[in-house]
Amino acid sequence: MTDESTNQGIPAPEGAADVIDTEYEIGQDNVDGSVGPFGFDIHNPVFAISGAAIVAFVFFTLALPDQAGAIFQAMFDFTTKNFDWFLIGAADIVVIFALLLIVTPFGSVRLGGSTATPDYTYLGWFSMLFAAGMGIGLMFYGVSEPLSHFSSSMGGAVSTDGVRSDWAPLAGAAGDAEASIRLGMAATIYHWGLHPWGIYAIVGLALALFSYNKGLPLTIRSAFYPLFGDRVFGWPGHIIDILAVFATLFGLATSLGFGATQANAGLNELFGVPIGNTTEVILISAITAVALISVLRGLDGGVKILSEVNMGLAGLLAVFTLIVGPTAFLFAFFWDSLKAYVEFLPALANPFGREDVNFSQGWTAFYWAWWISWSPFVGMFIARVSRGRSVREFIICVLLIPSVVCVAWMSIFGGTAIHQVITDNFTGAQDAELPRQLFQMLGQLPLASITSFIGIVLVVVFFVTSSDSGSLVIDTITAGGKVDAPVPQRVFWCIFEGAVAIALLIGGGLAALQSMVISTGLLFTLVLLVMCYCIFRGLQSERAELK
Fold first, then answer.
1. What mean pLDDT is predicted for residues 436-457?
2. How far apart are CA 111 and CA 23, in angstroms?
3. How far apart are CA 349 and CA 159, in angstroms?
4. Do 379 and 203 contact (CB within 8 A), yes or no?
5. CA 515 to CA 75: how far, in whole Å?
6. pTM of the full predicted structure?
7. In 3-state terms, what secondary structure has residue 392?
8. 525 and 87 Cβ atoms separated by less than 8 Å
9. Which of 326, 376, 461, 531 is the most exposed place for a label (fewest CB within 10 A)?
10. Rg of the chain (C-alpha set)
């Protein structure tokens, strides 16, 4: 971010902008002071309620792990079975709204005022938003999800007592390898393409618009000013921000748990490190400590550098796999997968009357809740680094380009694994546990030890960037929208994220992590839908100001 600041770290609009005239000042409800050498500047009551609730939750999970695990599973089952239609439908609405912004006159509005200029280059900007948005997930599911959907599609539809009991998307493609590949890749791209990035884009746009153009705090509540007016600075806004903290923290904890299990699996493959909660707790603790160093270095010296390093390593691993793998097959596979995605998208995105209940509830509903839980974190982080971009440029670069990169990633790694199954008759990756599948696939390629080690490094560094940028976002929310709050507060949230991930792993493993993320994601879905309306109102006033 630029150092130029007129309002607690928020740059004033440059050029024409419809600044909201309000007497509220950023930080006016904050409590500040110091404890020894450590300063604090926290919002009252958002910080207190969020912190106390999370501490109580961690204590309950650690004290009563069996009971916590049972509760988490019940929450997951209730949400996915009763609200899958709502999550799927909401994601559809968000994507359509985002795409419309590209082609309407609203796309010409510039974030930060009509003459604002970007704070970061395209390379730095894209690296940060991509590392924050998808890093650990792509490493965890890049091989496993294409393989899983391919395998379940090959098995076809299976019914037990009149209800589908298989995990195949749509009707499956029993015994048809080619059709199963197309359907499996369409389902994979559906989960990693336009829909998740559309969710991130809408939250990021709302935050950037109402902060940089309207002069409001950089926090979730500001996006709801068109609905609540100055009441957004009272309890309606407090509730929104507290909900955003919960969604962000549990969404991050889920991803950190995935990252720990995959790093553990990779270390076991290469060095024989034991598999289990003890190792994963040590990994989370160690990597959280590394994230603290990145926190202390700040946005430019920490997340930005690590994100660019990660993008370079990820690109290197992808290009290597493309070259030494079935190159001609993968190029054709990429385009065939895109065509299949377009063909099957209407059916996959249909929220009603689905017979593939395991797929739509266990895969899609979970994914959308996970992305929505991540959206306050990723959206605010994207907003922090996107000042100076036009709305059209913002949507294209946050929605379309990352979607294409995700398709390429899934095509390279998933396509290589599928090729090993259908051509080489190697089923090691297909039969392995989910965290091991990437390493099993790489094990069939040259320089397996080196590429597997790079894979572990990528998981770890994505872990660090997620933890660092997540603590930055939660700190901004709990500091009332201040982007220059004392560093010890970010340190506090960074440690807290690791503690919650550890507590959930001990309390019920990945099932507990998934249950918490889908529950908080469901609640934040309502916030996301209302946000679309508020963006429309905000862009209307900006266009009027430009005229």
1. 91
2. 22
3. 22
4. yes
5. 6
6. 0.89
7. helix
8. yes
9. 326
10. 22
